[in-house]
Amino acid sequence: MTWEAREAFDKMPERNVVSWTAMLRGYVQEGMIGEALSLFRLMQLQGIRPNFPSMISTLSVCGSLATLNHGREVHAQLVRSLFDCDVYVCSVLITMYMKCGDLVNGKRVFDRFTSKDTVMWNSIITGYAQHGLGKEALQVFYDMVSSGVPPDEVTFIGVLSACSYTGRVKEGLQLFESMKSKYLVNPKTEHYSCVVDLLGRAGKLNEAMNLIRDMSVEADACVWGALLGACRIHNRLDMAEVVAKKLLLLEPENTGHYILLSNIYSSQGRWRDVAALRSNMRVQSLSKSPGCSWIEVEKKVHTFTGGDITSHPEHAVILRMVEKLDGLIIEVGYSPDGSFVLHDVEEEEKVHNLRHHSEKLAVAYGILKVPKGMPIRIMKNLRVCGDCHAAIKLIAKVTEREIVLRDANRFHHFKDGSCSCGDYW
């Protein structure tokens, strides 16, 4: 248990860089990102000079939490320690910058090296894929092959994801076919999941189902989950119920499957089915993770939870900004989409619920605190909802701000009333 490790760590009469790094790694491995960052700050305050392993661990934390300012600080320390010329370090740096939404610095680190290994190529390809830059990801892939570096399993996850996020069905299928025949890489469930997602997003759900049935390996929850997500996008309730049964057999304790099916039911007004699913979850003691968004301002991470409008010390001014933004975007055509409220409530309450989604609270705080001319960077633990996506496009327009949102699936770059995803997500 990590808390036991921390208790032992706190009781140590003397702590050196090795013990600090071990504790830091423990937090990273357990996904306790906030605790890891706090520990790193404490490490700096106590004058412990980070060594190579601790800086690498911290870069991983910065990428996971999208805390760009901390990541830049660690990069500067790596430069001062002369570690920045290492190929592995540069791969970690590229990943950190890409996960933080800083494409320019990620590409700058990549371009510094003339001799790149597979991991470095994969870092930039995966980064472009996460940002929905399919054309750029494919170009880097072909540059990689031309340079004589053979693609591996991770490479193909990156390029297939890039094709999926940008609707490049033809290119994606061609790459999938070439994996084994041309590049001698055997497709695994992760690759099939990418292709199912590719076909599903494009509305080719029957083809996606046929692909699953013809797979050379057993379909896992990741594959079926990709198809269920496509059923949600295209409102295929008939197929969703079949797929959900498969998923609940494979992962009966994964609340995400229940929630996704519940979302499909609620979008079609099938509230009895929603209630039955939630009752089933309660019987099994399963609970939904709340929507949570966070933003880094002046090296401090501010977290917002959907519906919780009073926990932040500046909640009053944040709410006033939310209401102001709501009025501004209504004037330019915004209309709240109640289909994204997953409860059977009155229309007025639906509008109230939508207004207090975590990403909208984080955007409002960013507009209040982030200086004009600088991008507002937000992270969300779940997929952004369609209503928030439409609202943030208009917020970016009326405030003339660039807003970068990383959700559980990908990045969205909002500017001048449009999103980098082209509404294909």
Automatic annotation (TrEMBL):
Species: Linum tenue
Pfam families for this protein: DYW_deaminase (PF14432), E_motif (PF20431), PPR (PF01535), PPR_2 (PF13041)
PPR repeat positions: 16-50, 117-151, 152-182
Domain of life: Eukaryota
Annotated Gene3D superfamilies: Tetratricopeptide repeat domain
Protein name: DYW domain-containing protein
Coiled coil: none
Keywords: Repeat
This protein's record includes keyword Membrane: no
